[in-house]
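User: quick one
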Amino acid sequence: MRSLQDLLAEHPFFAGLDESTVSMLVGCSTNVHYRAGEYLFHEGEPADRLFVVRRGRVALDVHVPGQAEMVVETVEEGGVVGWSWLVPPYRWFFDARAVQEVSAVAVDATCLRAKCDEDPALGYALMQRVAGVMYHRLQSARVRLLDLYGAGRAG
Amino acid sequence: MLPRPFRVLATRRETHDTMTLELAALDGEGLPFAPGQFTMLQAFGVGEVPISISGDPGRPDRLVHTIRDVGGVTRTLCAAREGDVLGVRGPYGHGWGVSDGAGGDVLVIAGGIGLAPLRAAVLELVASRDRFGMVHVLHGARTEADVLFGEELLAWASGSDIELAVIVDRAATSWTGRVGLVTELLGGAAFDPGRTLALVCGPEVMMRFVAAGLVARGVPPGRVRLSLERNMRCGVGLCGHCQLREYLLCVDGPVLSLDAVRRQLGVREL
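Assistant: Done. Structure below.
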């Protein structure tokens, strides 16, 4: 069985962090598993963890009044779920649901924020990673806003 | 320049706005073509539009077009029934050059209706599968209901050693696949960038993003091929409607390599 240290060190989100830094993060982390259909969190609940997805697929769902729930994004193996722990009031903005069986490492947000406060270099390294993922998600959302497939070409 | 009459042999609804028509020439002569080429397809008395050939290049006796209803002429074409006669000019233009990918990996990346012009390329890959390394088909669609050739995609994946990935812009919770931008599929695809041929078709903005992603992965721009669309009218390089600076897309394209058009793609109003 692989240790949390190995799981975090191997994950693309933490690529480039040295061993001692990863060890520090291990203290904030737990291994979690979800069956297909189970929720990692619900909209409005306290955003208390960062999920580092090791296996499976997580859907971010949003409830649209009067309509069925919609999936706005999926996160796969190698991705991370959850930013709301970074910004007050620390509440989830979407539901996160395991589409398939999901294995992840859940990093406690309070612990993580405290370590970042104690060690600005760690904080900066993590913020760079978080910003990178957010940048790609924002690009994806903006391009999809254009609804490119909705018009144009006939065949 | 005169259209040849073709009879509609069969029609198939692909999505709520897209139909596939199977046609055969009234004179019995087939229409040999290269994947990526198009014809000028005419609904008599209504008009003529450029439509890529989506059929099997090994079956020139059957001309197959997948058409999206985006206006007057295409609405009439989509409403064609078995037995109707349509006019066909062509085939025209430069195709994908699929065989240039032999000995290496091939990425087929399609956004929306862009899978139609690529279907012929995939059929060529399937027919000579052992000449190629990894073959990936990456398809982005607006919603689950807009995924083109759904059953055929699964058949390619299960029967032809093709890696298939589909992603949609948004979905109902019943969808178990991926939701996001088609570029996100590149990250999960295993290929040898230096020996990869990438065939890309979709909205031009999407192709720019995909092309940037491919180059970032190390695919040489000369091995990234895009199918471009402008307002094609004559199909033979006379009228100039489809001009893209130094190119007339009906004869120089519609498929051009990224290194040939990268500069033009960044120019507004071109």
